[in-house]
């Protein structure tokens, strides 16, 4: 080992001031790559601080421009230089504009220093803007001699701090300058993110609106779930609570928080699961009817097909809640009182054995099939996660979501049939001439399962396979290889 260390090297401080009186600082013995471009950041907010940390960790030299450097110098890592906006703009090769769009006009005096440089606009609006212009386009008009790139606005400060492994890895970029977009693309990869090229700067309006949407693909499935829950809950309330109170004066309103909800949840879960596979059957029937796959589906059917994942997850939520509610049923005081009263009644009437084979078998099969249905639904839900779906190929994903999905639907349907048993044929179950809930719920899943069985017939499946491989009923499609011309 070489212990020959010069005294001057030992006395040299790691951190030195850049310009006394300005509160700026930088790391002289930096771990940054000396050939790496200097990255400037305009602004000292939460996003700016997180961005500076991520850039330093990625090996870049970072300089932050602030109107009051002394006030914010302690908030940034020691490797980051905090200085005035003019000096930061002069030093930086690439500048992040991390200030609110209404304050962009305060940077106009930096035009000479920012001329010919790349500006990255990370701002978002306060509401969805459909008319334009975007913040990035306004910034480009304000700095015509600079190249503006829209990006990093969909990445949160938290994701920048903890790294892309715990958040979204995609960074959407757009710009009218291919060279500027290429340099920002390289910067994204160095930081550990995945750049997504969205084209020219005219796409910036779409990128700025992305963080403002509130579950756009979940709106219809959630409304559908809530609507079905309200409908089935009111139906069960009238059937199981209101009818006994009106006809015989029995006060069964205590059933509303637990029992009525527990009967409603599986009804919603089964109908929602049927709605996952019904649009696929309708699309297959439409292709068979038209004899081609090249005609677009109706818009409603197309949107329905794209929301099947959300419908399935809503079904899984209701099924899980149903399982939890069912486990809590014996914990209620009303259930214990009912059990004690039944025991006293049997002793009073001299009943020695109340065992009924049919009821015992029904309950055993009912619970077993329900557990299997919930297990398959859990597998479908886990596989729908992007991190899990990326580990399987398309055939495996299709097998789980389609084949096992239909198995889950069949198990859930059988679970409901075993719950109903022979009560559908009992006239006393039709309160106010209303059939039991399970009889109504079974209609849609039975239609879906029967439709699936019809499409599995050889004549139907063969025709559908031909259509999906490009065959058309109206004309004969013939595939030919191009002629090979030999040059002598």
TrEMBL record:
<dbReference type="GO" id="GO:0006826">
    <property type="term" value="P:iron ion transport"/>
</dbReference>
<feature type="domain" description="Ferric oxidoreductase">
    <location>
        <begin position="267"/>
        <end position="401"/>
    </location>
</feature>
<dbReference type="Pfam" id="PF03807">
    <property type="entry name" value="F420_oxidored"/>
</dbReference>
<dbReference type="GO" id="GO:0005886">
    <property type="term" value="C:plasma membrane"/>
</dbReference>
<keyword id="KW-0560">Oxidoreductase</keyword>
<keyword id="KW-0967">Endosome</keyword>
<keyword id="KW-0408">Iron</keyword>
<dbReference type="GO" id="GO:0010008">
    <property type="term" value="C:endosome membrane"/>
</dbReference>
<keyword id="KW-0479">Metal-binding</keyword>
<comment type="similarity">
    <text>Belongs to the STEAP family.</text>
</comment>
<keyword id="KW-0274">FAD</keyword>
<feature type="transmembrane region" description="Helical">
    <location>
        <begin position="438"/>
        <end position="459"/>
    </location>
</feature>
<protein>
    <submittedName>
        <fullName>STEAP3 metalloreductase</fullName>
    </submittedName>
</protein>
<dbReference type="GO" id="GO:0008823">
    <property type="term" value="F:cupric reductase (NADH) activity"/>
</dbReference>
<feature type="transmembrane region" description="Helical">
    <location>
        <begin position="397"/>
        <end position="418"/>
    </location>
</feature>
<keyword id="KW-1133">Transmembrane helix</keyword>
<keyword id="KW-0410">Iron transport</keyword>
<feature type="transmembrane region" description="Helical">
    <location>
        <begin position="311"/>
        <end position="332"/>
    </location>
</feature>
<keyword id="KW-0186">Copper</keyword>
<dbReference type="InterPro" id="IPR013130">
    <property type="entry name" value="Fe3_Rdtase_TM_dom"/>
</dbReference>
<keyword id="KW-0812">Transmembrane</keyword>
<dbReference type="Pfam" id="PF01794">
    <property type="entry name" value="Ferric_reduct"/>
</dbReference>
<keyword id="KW-0472">Membrane</keyword>
<feature type="transmembrane region" description="Helical">
    <location>
        <begin position="268"/>
        <end position="290"/>
    </location>
</feature>
<feature type="domain" description="Pyrroline-5-carboxylate reductase catalytic N-terminal">
    <location>
        <begin position="39"/>
        <end position="125"/>
    </location>
</feature>
<dbReference type="InterPro" id="IPR028939">
    <property type="entry name" value="P5C_Rdtase_cat_N"/>
</dbReference>
<dbReference type="GO" id="GO:0046872">
    <property type="term" value="F:metal ion binding"/>
</dbReference>
<feature type="transmembrane region" description="Helical">
    <location>
        <begin position="220"/>
        <end position="238"/>
    </location>
</feature>
<dbReference type="InterPro" id="IPR051267">
    <property type="entry name" value="STEAP_metalloreductase"/>
</dbReference>
<keyword id="KW-0813">Transport</keyword>
<keyword id="KW-0406">Ion transport</keyword>
<dbReference type="GO" id="GO:0015677">
    <property type="term" value="P:copper ion import"/>
</dbReference>
<feature type="transmembrane region" description="Helical">
    <location>
        <begin position="365"/>
        <end position="385"/>
    </location>
</feature>
<keyword id="KW-0285">Flavoprotein</keyword>
<dbReference type="InterPro" id="IPR036291">
    <property type="entry name" value="NAD(P)-bd_dom_sf"/>
</dbReference>
<dbReference type="GO" id="GO:0052851">
    <property type="term" value="F:ferric-chelate reductase (NADPH) activity"/>
</dbReference>
